[in-house]
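In response to reviewer comment 3 from the previous cycle, which asked for concrete evidence that the modeling workflow produces usable outputs, we include below a single protein chain processed end to end. The sequence was submitted unchanged, and the resulting structure tokens are shown without manual editing.
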Amino acid sequence: MEAALLRKCIVVATTVFMVAFLTAAAQNAVTRVPLPNSNFPISEGVWVGETFYMSGMIDSSVAKETPGDTEVQTVHALDAIKKALEEQHLSLGDVVLMHVYLAGDPAQGGKMDFAGFMKGYTQYFGTKDQPNKPARSAMQVAALALPGALVEIEVTAVASHRNPAHPHLGK
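The workflow returned the following structure tokens.
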């Protein structure tokens, strides 16, 4: 009788372990999201479990026309981030971490225009409609990869458990 009980306990323990292991493995699955309409060798973002790591975004109009100032470029970069997040069923409210790279602005004597960045940033974070604020670092860099770019922003977002329809939850 004790041997049968021991076997049942082993089967239950093994089943519990396997379910926990498979759940953890599914949560840490890696999914790469390609850059739309591009063969550039980076991903737009990478899912690891419920966390989405997005590559840095630059105002795409900088390459096509006269670049705007830091505030304008911040707004355009955040609009691009918002759109890319929405394609992943995320929102700016899901952003938990932000890194901001600001190039020196010639109009500011080669110094970063942090005030201009903040004018753009505060249109999206800490507002009545979107009160969530990410942890954030902002720094001046010597230059960005795209000539004329003053702002590059990368974000990390976490899928909300409040949205059970999200394709990355429960997989």
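The longest helix spans residues 2-27. We consider this sufficient to address the reviewer's concern, and the full set will be provided in the supplementary archive.
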